[in-house]
Amino acid sequence: MKFLRSGRLYGIVLVMLALISLPYWASRYWVLVMLLFSINLALSEMWNLLAGYSGLISLGQQAFIGLGGYALAVFSLYYGLPIWLSIIIGGTVSVLFALLISAPIFRMRGVYFAIGTWTVAETLRILFSNWKYVGYGMGLFVKPAYALSFNTIYYTALGAGIVSVALVYFLLRSKLGLGLMAIRDEETASETLGVDIFRCKLNCFLISAGVTGAVSGVLYLHNIFIQPYSAFGIDWTVRLVFITIIGGIGTIEGPIIGSFLYVFLHQWLSDYPSVSLLILGVIAIGVILVAPKGIMGTIQEKLGFEFLSPRRK
Amino acid sequence: MLSFLVELKGPIVNGLLLGGLYGIIGIGMSMIFGIVRMVNLAHGDLVILASYLSLVTMAFFHVSPLITLILVIPVMCLIGFVIQYYLLNRVLGKGMNPPLLVAFGLSIILQNLLLLIFTPDARALLTSISVQTIPVGGFLNLPVVYLVDFIGSIITIVLLSRFFNRTYMGKAIRAASDDEGAAQLMGINTKTIYAVAMGLATGTAAVAGILVGMTFTFYPHTGPEYLIIAFGVVIVGGLGSLFGTFFGGLILGLAQLLGAHFLGPGFQLLSGYVILLLVMTFKPTGLFAKG
Lengths: 313, 291
What we know:
heterodimer, A: mainly alpha, ABC transporter involved in vitamin B12 uptake, BtuC, two-stranded antiparallel sheet, 1% strand, B: mainly alpha, two-stranded antiparallel ribbon, 2 strands
């Protein structure tokens, strides 16, 4: 067992080294693929934190993606603030907005929560496309991002991916994580034992919003152009849902596998984006029907094998 | 005060008529929410699927969109039955999330299938009535198509309500929705009942889709917009009554057109969303819910 654990550690270190040195030995295309992989991983890990561990099926993650992207554009373009500061502001704005909407949104449960978060994002989409300050529906160019090299954006994205996985890992091993798992297993009993359900879920919601907003800043360093219809579009959350469900909802490794599958399928069928979404939709439904725990969840169940276990040994 | 109302007569009358259309969009979702206790996130896409089916039928037989109902309704009923029987029934009773996510996946599949077949171009079910207006009392011009929407919606709801109250199948569906266990003990196969209910719901989606297609342009990706409208109608109207759903539609339509009147056309959808969020926050059981 000890050998296996140290072997696992070596494995993680090796993968990290490979990813960090990637721009020096791989072609630009593969660096791009891994960049997209990292961003998708970070975003879907945050959806997983909500849906897989807190039982909050949010269909409104695009609200924070849009806010983060617009914060980057507005603060770096209009106010000339440094790009990294603008990204952090994007995360902060997202947390504040999440806090603001949490009062009404946490009165909604289950499917009400899902549609409620979605409606909030749609509301933002209409507001931004009617807002002169951000150029209506025409959108904004994040011009300051041109100053960054491709490798810098890659390392930022990679950092975001690694940080998000580490964050979920350590969160789940913290008091908050124990509370969440207690709630998931038996809500009433956990409340009797003193778990503050509302606070646990709210903290997850705020963390997820903040990280999503900041990662979205990194995303728009790469995309360069932001426009309300795409930034606040449901397509983002569709992607996160598919990635997490196929990989394994409620497992830390699930989004890693899911993001790999998503990015490869997307690149492979890059001329036919609707075909790749079609295939992902069919796979996702198949997974829910046949193996509801997804690829990683099923492997863990069958083989008792976990890479990043939130459990304490 | 009176002159204020006269100025508002346009948005109010049009809002109510549009609300009738929203009622028929929401009615199928309300039925499934009430009977199967599931939110069909693909409802908006089923509505748009019906619009496209009608488009194809129109092009094939060169008939008016209303005539295509004869073909589109049975086809949509069959599609709904199959979806429920072979797909959604399998995830019922496994918690809240699996049915929600399967329907969500279905919605994405439908959108991209429509996109592949019909390209992202805007479509419309054009007829002569799409552009006609009726002058009412010399001070108001009513778009004929809005009137057709409203009447079509009322006819559908009256027929549905007769079905639920008079026929054996209607009573069985109500029994299964009231108490699944007791209905099973009485010899009702609830799984089949759910599939029939879904077939009926997609049948109403067929009517809604054709009316929507005659009234507005549609794209493969318009489904989610109507899903949120349908959900708004269900939430505002509350569960449990067909006519409550219809009134929910009227309120939503009125709110949208009054919002557009006061804030500008860009805010038509927004005021509907705000109403939806307010009702979900303060009275999630709906404005007309019993008890």
